[in-house]
Design brief:
about 280 residues, 10 helices, globular, single chain
């Protein structure tokens, strides 16, 4: 594994606030993508009393080659999880909540109803909270997407993750065009804000990135995130390139050129990083 540049390193922070967040999550038996995906922004988010909740278990039915979440046969859904998520959000006094999940291809609807139940329970206890969901592709199933639309999240996020040329290497069980179709379907059939993001450093070119940003704009994506891929372990895809700070400024200009005006672009940006702010 390559050594991380200094600007990608984050200090360990342990305060009363971070301990409070961990305690609430443990009490409610909840998972977060912050822990499972080894997010470098975990401590910063915890100090702000926020976390990205990971629903439907710790095990994924897909084996994306960049992701630290394990691929294994998932456990049955915890039907109490939506209620526990809502209680944790209330305890943390969140004004903006992000809910994501592992991919559950073993479920007929891919877990869409479970997402909807989480939204429903959150709104029972927290009327004013804004809700962003970061979902898998549900294999493009329109019935599943309609379940999501009917639940009315404030933001629907589905990450394209990488450029077309690299996609099958990074996501062998996914499909670039299916991801675009999912984002387009939500945009065409609702007034929900749509969001997507990608990692860079997997061997893509600047032209590849431009193509992807134009594709995302063409399906109506409102919000974009771009951040540096960091290899979770030696068993994952290697980093091909660490982008410089100047190159991130160029990517911001590229986003504007492609017509995307709302974005978070930077070395440590992840799909839910400072989501409430943008």
């Amino acid at each position: 594994m390559q050594r991380l540049p200094e600007y990608l390193k984050r200090p360990i922070i342990d305060t009363d606030r971070t301990r409070t967040v961990r305690r609430i999550l443990k009490t409610k038996c909840l998972n977060t993508v912050c822990e499972n995906a080894r997010c470098p922004n975990k401590n910063e988010c915890y100090t702000k009393n926020t976390a990205t909740f990971l629903i439907m278990g710790n095990d994924c039915t897909r084996n994306c080659r960049y992701c630290n979440i394990s691929c294994a046969k998932p456990e049955p859904l915890d039907l109490e999880e939506p209620k526990h998520i809502a209680e944790a959000i209330q305890a943390l006094n969140l004004k903006y909540a992000v809910i994501t999940s592992v991919t559950r291809d073993d479920l007929p609807d891919g877990g869409a109803e479970h997402f909807a139940n989480c939204i429903k329970e959150i709104r029972k206890l927290n009327e004013d909270v804004k809700i962003e969901i970061l979902t898998p592709d549900f294999k493009g199933n329109e019935a599943s997407l309609n379940t999501i639309i009917d639940a009315r999240p404030d933001v629907f996020n589905h990450n394209i993750e990488t450029v077309r040329r690299v996609f099958k290497t990074a996501r062998p069980q996914g499909d670039y065009d299916t991801s675009l179709k999912v984002l387009k379907y939500i945009k065409d059939n609702s007034n929900i804000k749509t969001k997507s993001g990608l990692m860079i450093g997997l061997g893509e070119t600047f032209s590849d990135i431009e193509e992807t940003l134009c594709d995302l704009k063409s399906v109506g994506v409102d919000i974009l995130t771009i951040g540096q891929y960091i290899q979770p372990s030696k068993n994952h895809l290697e980093v091909e390139k660490f982008y410089t700070k100047d190159e991130y400024e160029d990517l911001k200009k590229l986003a504007k050129k492609c017509g995307i005006s709302h974005y978070q672009i930077g070395p440590l940006v992840r799909s839910s990083y400072r989501a409430g702010e943008i």
